[in-house]
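Summarise this fold before class:
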Amino acid sequence: MAEETPRIVGDARAGDGSGAVWRLSPGERTLDANVIHLPAGDGIAEHAGPQLDVLIHVIDGSGTLTTEDGDIELKPGSLVWLPRLSRRAFAAGPDGLRYLSVHGRKPLLGIVTR
């Protein structure tokens, strides 16, 4: 029998501020997820993504995702796959941008003794 049971873990429309306004918190899991909120005019500078594929779902607002192949318009309902290590930058539109980011859990860093 599973140790965890299905349950509501948050509200994707809650939280203000800039950056991660919600994070998946159950300790034992193989999935990671967070809600990112960027106020109007805010953004995330160009960077290489993690060693994991990422799926984002735009909850509300609008914006632009800049990639190596050009710009992608983001609007509510958009589902975007970000391949591992792909270059990306986000810019929020006039009403801000809120999206859910989902990917496999990153391995925990640890100290290895020999």
Observations:
- The beta strands are 19-23, 31-38, 43-48, 54-67, 70-74, 79-82, 87-104.
- The first strand starts at residue 19 and ends at 23.
